[in-house]
Every structure is written in C-alpha cells, then in structure tokens.
C-alpha cells in the first residue's frame, strides 16, 4: 500500500493551486483518496485520485487510508452518534461521498469515520 495515500475526512475540502491564494480550483469530498507529494506547515500538496487534480489541501482534512464500500446517493446524509433520528448529529456527508459500511441493521448503516486520530464506527 502507498504510505502517502490518505483520505478526505471532512464533508468536503478545497483543493487549491496555491496555499497562499484565495482561489479555489476544485473540491474533494469525504472518502476520496489523496496522494500526498509534499507538506508545508498546515498544508499538503498532492493528487486527488478521483479526478487526478493536483493542488494543496489543509492537512487536517486528511486521515489514514480506509477501504470504501458505498457512495452516498442523496444530496446530504447525516452521521448520527446512535441509530436514532433524535441522536446527536456528528457531521454530514454530501452527495457522492465515499464511505465504508461495516453493518446495516434496521435501516441504519454503521460507517467508519475518522475522529480522535483513528477510525471509529459512527
């Protein structure tokens, strides 16, 4: 496995040609793979595996590589702490996010999410 291969762990993050410019060239979505080629300060330069765009992303939007099994097919899906609509919302996933579903029970999917520097089941 490529030790420079990471995943986007935020709902989305900007991909910029220059870390010092406000211009946004593209966007990477949750679960997309990103190959890091260089790191400077709080930024990582690399290639989005999804579309082969190269640019800078905030390093804290990257987590360790994990397999994905599903793609989000609704405009926005929410990640709940527990399988209960009244449970705390941890985050959201935009359309086309890539996720790893470890279990489906009673119409709820248990997915892997990256928090506290490790993958957890959300």
What does this structure look like?
There is one protein chain. This protein has 122 residues and is an all-beta fold. The protein has strands at 5-8, 12-15, 26-29, 33-40, 43-48, 54-58, 62-64, 70-71, 76-80, 89-94, 98-99, 101-105, 108-115, 118-121. The strands form five sheets. A five-stranded antiparallel sheet has the order 6-5-4-1-7, with no helix packed on it. Strands 12-13-14 form a three-stranded antiparallel sheet, with no helix packed on it. The protein has a two-stranded antiparallel ribbon with strand order 2-3. It is elongated.
Classify the beta-strand content into a percent band. over 45%
Low-confidence stretches: none
**Ends apart, CA distance between termini:** 25 Å
Report on the biggest sheet: 5 strands, antiparallel
Instruction: Specify the overall morphology.
Output: elongated
Mean pLDDT across residues:
90
SSE pattern, N- to C-terminal: EEEEEEEEEEEEEE
Determine the fraction of residues in helical runs and give it as a percent range. Answer: under 10%
Individual helix count: 0
The neighbouring-strand order within the major sheet is 6-5-4-1-7
Structural class: mainly beta
Instruction: Provide the gyration radius in Å.
Output: 15 Å
């Amino acid at each position: 496995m490529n030790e420079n291969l990471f995943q986007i762990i935020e709902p989305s993050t900007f991909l910029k040609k220059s870390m010092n410019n406000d211009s946004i060239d593209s966007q990477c979505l949750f679960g997309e793979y990103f190959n890091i080629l260089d790191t400077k300060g709080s930024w990582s330069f690399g290639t989005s595996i999804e579309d082969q765009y190269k640019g800078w992303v905030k390093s804290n939007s990257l987590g360790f590589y994990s397999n994905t099994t599903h793609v989000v097919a609704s405009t926005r899906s929410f990640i709940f702490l527990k399988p209960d609509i009244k449970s705390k919302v941890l985050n959201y996933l935009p359309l086309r996010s890539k996720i790893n579903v470890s279990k489906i029970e009673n119409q709820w999917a248990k997915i892997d999410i990256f928090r506290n520097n490790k993958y957890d089941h959300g």
